[in-house]
Design brief:
- By secondary structure, the chain is an alpha+beta fold.
- About 35% of the residues lie in helices and about 15% in strands.
- The chain folds into two domains: about 1-85, Beta-grasp domain (Ubiquitin-like (UB roll)); about 95-160, Orthogonal Bundle (DNA polymerase, domain 1), CATH 1.10.150.120.
- A hairpin with a 2-residue loop joins β1 (about 1-5) and β2.
- The chain is globular, with a radius of gyration of 15 Å.
- The protein binds FE2/S2 (inorganic) cluster (2 copies).
- One FE2/S2 (inorganic) cluster (FES) binds near residues 37, 38, 40 and 44.
């Protein structure tokens, strides 16, 4: 099945089997391996991407979606931003930088999904309180338990905006 998708602001053409998940397409066909496979069932958040992000403004108007549950042809009707598309050239997105500065990761497997959830949250609510941040991260499972540091990192971004 031939499809054209907008990923990280670029039009990409792919030829994939029917019912290919967006997650497989991103990782296997486009080489965007920052989006992780965790459960494959929409339950861990490792595969989150932004859907409907405005090109050039990652996170604007977007929501975090599980790319393991979205088919490639569904995604072809949206604009998709992955963790690789958040940076502005060599300058990391403020949420990415805050996670690094705040040491908000251990093994890092969940990190791209958490960052995506945080970017989506801050786009719809630039000054979220702690409850809102916790709610936004509710779908992101972290085996290493970095939730406290992740919440503090997101708060720092909100407070500096
Ligand atoms: S891989 Fe777990 S939610 Fe998609
Ligand atoms: S940092 Fe290891 S799973 Fe979250």
């Amino acid at each position: 099945m031939k499809l054209a998708l907008t990923v990280n602001g670029e039009r990409r053409e792919v030829d994939v089997p029917p019912n290919t998940s967006l997650l497989s397409l991103l990782r296997d066909d486009l080489g965007l391996t920052g989006t992780r496979y965790g459960c494959g069932r929409g339950q861990c958040g490792a595969c989150y991407v932004l859907a409907d992000a405005g090109v050039g403004a990652p996170g604007h108007g977007a929501r975090a979606v599980a790319s393991c549950l979205l088919t490639a042809d569904q995604a072809a009707r949206m604009e998709i931003t992955t963790v690789e598309g958040l940076a502005d050239g060599t300058k990391l997105h403020p949420v990415q930088q805050a996670f690094i500065d705040g040491d908000a990761l251990q093994c890092g497997y969940c990190t791209s999904g958490m960052v995506i959830s945080a970017v989506a949250l801050l786009a719809r609510d630039p000054r979220p309180d702690e409850t809102s941040i916790r709610d936004a991260l509710a779908g992101n499972l972290c085996r290493c338990g970095v939730y406290g540091r992740a919440i503090r990192a997101i708060r720092r971004v909100a407070e500096s905006s």
